[in-house]
Amino acid sequence: MVIGNSLSIVNATKYYKKFKAVDDVNLTVNQGEFLTILGPSGSGKTSLLKLIAGFEQLSNGSIVLNDVDISKKKPYEREIGMLFQNYALFPHMTVFDNIAYPLRLRKFPKEVIKQKVETILKLIHLEQFGSRYPEQLSGGQQQRVALARAIVFNPPLLLLDEPLGALDKQLRKQMQLEIKHIQKQVGITTVSVTHDQEEALTMSDKICVMNNGKVEQIDTPENIYKHPKNRFVAEFIGEINLIKGNVVNVSEENVKVKVHDSFIADVERIKDFGIEVKNQSMLIALRPENIQIARDLSQFQNTIQAKIIETIYVGEAVNIKTVTETGEEITAKIPAHMSDLSGSGRDILLGWNSKDACLIQDEKTA
Length: 366
Ligand code: ADP
Ligand code: MG
What we know:
The structure is a single chain. This protein is of the alpha+beta class. It folds into two domains: 7-233, P-loop containing nucleotide triphosphate hydrolases (Rossmann fold, 3-Layer(aba) Sandwich); 239-361, CATH 2.40.50.140. The protein has helices spanning 45-53, 75-78, 95-105, 110-123, 139-151, 169-186, 197-203, 221-226, 231-236; strands spanning 7-16, 19-29, 34-38, 60-65, 68-69, 81-84, 158-161, 190-194, 206-211, 214-219, 241-250, 254-260, 263-268, 281-286, 292-293, 302-313, 317-324, 329-335, 347-352, 357-361. Strand 7 (158-161), helix 6 (169-186) and strand 8 form a beta-alpha-beta unit. Helix 3 crosses helix 4 (110-123) and helix 5 (139-151) runs parallel beside helix 6. The longest helix is centred in the middle third of the chain and has 18 residues, at 169-186. It binds adenosine-5'-diphosphate (ADP) and magnesium ion. Adenosine-5'-diphosphate binds next to strand 2 and helix 1.
């Protein structure tokens, strides 16, 4: 068993000439944890990973692995396991030899190498494939071999940079789960980079959302999805309706937000919100799947009259675009088996409960 180590990134900043690609990043990954850095292209994800690996030097700050500052160490001295999208296997070597490579490099005794490679081949369910060559394996199998090669020498940390980017969607989904299972079984501390929000939600214990080199939010997948901290996080992950309103009352449990004279929304208050949000302009963040078609006004804590603009069939659900009587555009996602709604122009009643929405700062006016 590999024992993971904790990683701390402290005030990390990276300039390429005058361009700041990583801007004062602070984050901690606990032992055995899987953290995903998620952000759009150009947000500084790969730069941050290269800083951890030692391929780039920090302009400022430090990287601490298991209580040791490794910022000044050469990449090979850091002994970190890596798996990148184009991290190709050696084509002229068998699967066994590919996996044994990092162990031979480190001069492990022959018997130890044999035992370690066989153990890990079992872990990746390829125990019968040791004598094959990479070209005789499927894409997913090759990826598992590359993963095995990255972790066979018990590195303190595993880094993944868009490792599944080259695979088709179905295989990618399957590999996400396989890598996660192997990571958990081995218990290796892992930092992964992706621009794919679904991948981040599926694989991670924690997600760090980046934008313009800065950290926007670090949290569990569930909290990132249910309680995005700001507009960027809310819009980057999943579909969301953002409804602008003014806070008119804050009680122990609820916040009342006036969207319109005829509509005051009730939102469950979470611990972050103090009484000072009163009178502030804020955004009500509401996931389409949390909205339902209401039978009457008493069925949900929030109901609003709306007109259907468009219905879009997406297989398991129907996305219903509406405009409310107060002028807001709201999209609801209704399970297909519950929706017999067709055509635009129909009037419906949208409903949701207070706990299914959250409030975020309206940065434009804050
Ligand atoms: P991501 O992986 O999130 O797409 P990167 O870390 O690769 O982002 O890049 C972040 C920003 O830094 C981009 O604007 C990119 O053009 C710039 N950048 C990355 N590497 C270099 C480099 N070696 N020299 C100059 N600029 C770079
Ligand atoms: Mg990148």
